[in-house]
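Lecture notes, structural biology module. Today: joint structure prediction for complexes of two components.
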Amino acid sequence: MIAGLNEPTEGNILIYGIPNKQALDRMGYMAHAPLLYDELSGMENLRFFAQLYGISSDAPLTKAMERVGLDPKLERRVGQYSQGMRQRLSLARAIFHEPKLLLLDEPFSNVDPDSALQIATLLAGMRSGGATILLVTHQVGLLANLADEYLMLSHGQLIDHGPMTRGQA
Amino acid sequence: MSAPFTKLAWTNVSKDLRLEWRSRDVFNSMMFFALIVVVVFSFAFEREDSKPVMGGLIWIAFLFSTTMALNQSWARELRNGVLDAYRVSPAPAEALFLGKCLGNFILIVLLECLMAPLFVIFYNLSSVGPLWQLVLVTLLGTWALVVNGTFFAAMSIRTRNRELMLPLLLLPISIPAVLSMVTGTAQVLSGDGSPNVQLKFLAGFCVIFTTACFLLFETVLNAE
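The predicted structure, tokenised, for the full assembly:
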């Protein structure tokens, strides 16, 4: 709903004071599905999506791929990537335009523990750089040094919320 | 921060053509279907008798091949949820629509170019009227099918029976255009009358439906 894929039944969503659909260039979105074309290579995927954001240079794309631990020169098509590599590339797709708001749905699923830790460190860096991150996960432990606040849901109901502490993680 | 509209549309066209070049899933099925139509009907008609029905025959092959192509061109946007990545980007929905239309149009025109020699071989096809009129009828007719088909394929993409839904939506609304295409093509091939009225009708049809589809596409794209 925040990303504009669903309409709220009532009310408005404002991002930095403007309606969410006008703030799409400030948002990065990573869904459970990878949102990538299987027939294109990683860099070709990023190039296509970068054009949608008005970015025609390869530099931010190369940087995003390196930040998630992928080789920008890898010519293999995404259809031949492992689940973990797809997950990383999906994250690169969400961050190449340096969004101020990052919406992440299960970014640690399908990745090995080392990679999950690497992604958590990357997100911590983005948070320190001023980005707001809204993250949904079942792997709460990885958020110990990352999250400021948490909301715990069970069966669609909010059952707990508050500032995040290492003990809660 | 979004790129100019035409550049975005072209980005979509080049992406679609690249995906098709690598997978060939749309073009192969289109080509195969059109080939079957040409070969099977060649058994039914003598070469000399086929001229009166050629207008219909040509458009049967292209109409159903087009329907097949349009369904698949949207299906690849649903794989891995890629369409959502487009929807959360600042790029306008209309650029995606124009890109899809142009990409499909290029593929179908390519199919028509490849099928033309086969029609000549199997049916001894020749044009009595001016060839440019035949080309114009074909291009306008193809655009009429593509623009409506791309729109209705997007509309039916999230339905369970999308392969069935597209022809159900597309064919009734395209009947006036199909009549003009078939009549215009037959008139040029036989030299029996001028296709000027059909050409004007097709041009009007293309303008009206292109405009309507453009205006409504964003609503269709974001409909749940």
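Point to remember: Chain B touches chain A through 26 residues (CB under 8 Å).
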